[in-house]
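T-cell surface glycoprotein CD1c isoform X1, pasting as requested.
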Amino acid sequence: MLLLPLAFLSALRGGDSVEVQEHVLFHVIQISSFANRSWVQNLGSGWLGELQTHGWDSAQGTIIFLHSWSRGNFSNQQLTNLELLFRFYFSGITQEIQEYSSQLQFEYPFILQADVGCELYSGATLKSFFQVAYQGSDFLSLQNMSWVPAPEGENKARRICDTINQYDGIKETVHKLIRSICPQFTWGLLDAGKKYFQRQERPEAWLSSRSIYGSSLLLLVCHVSGFYPKSIWVMWMRGEQEQLNTQQGDILPNADGTWYLHVTLDVEARDAVGLACWVRHSSLGGQDLILPWGHHPSMKLILLAVLLALMLPIALALWFKKHWRRQWLSLENPALSL
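Structure tokens follow.
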């Protein structure tokens, strides 16, 4: 089985924990798709919380830094050592699995997933993890210094754990990676990306609606987008009374790293007047953003504006035609101008 080289880790900084002020998660996700004995695709990505910070170029065997601060405070040499470690891991794990797939009872095609990382808490506490899934189900994990099969893995996972638990070098390398290097790198990311994470982006909000087919209800939608940080409060209100049947969707990421959210409210069309969408966010300086329903152009006003826009050129054309006709007639018959 694969023995990860401890030499690659010797150049990386030591230490067991990092002091942080809040809960922080950094983890690396691996997805390996084995189509047959000769074709495999390895995908890798690094995530700080819900923000992707790194990718993996499987063709070049190199780390992709998705932000200017994604290198953290590690030196080029430390990052090169990590890159070599990941390259060796992907190459070795692929070779080992393909060679022993029949003994491991892996039936092609199959997918292996790994989630590796650390969670930092205030008070310098640390939780680290290395979890592996097979075909989307929990398979095995590293607990302290032993590989432990998941109940879903049954005998297949137990046999693999019995085998790889014999290789102390693998366990020591992984243990150092998640207990020492991961928290150091995470703290460096937070420090390097301080300005990025402390920025404040004001939300933009707008309203829309649609009739609910087969009923007299109206679905009111309050869209809020472009805000950062993620924490936000959005509610349909009548005066200062919260409408408890407000439904909030998931907070979704925008391409620029900001967030989007919509909240909806089912209401009788005749009762929509007097409602408003309230938005509270740290970027607003304590001033709620309030969008009253009915203070946006109705469909009748929109249609009227469209008709005016269409009629204006026609009216101008008729005026010019009449004007120039009179001018022309006056030139031909001066008496008409008297």
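Note for the archive: Residues 204-292 form a domain with the Immunoglobulin-like fold (CATH 2.60.40.10).
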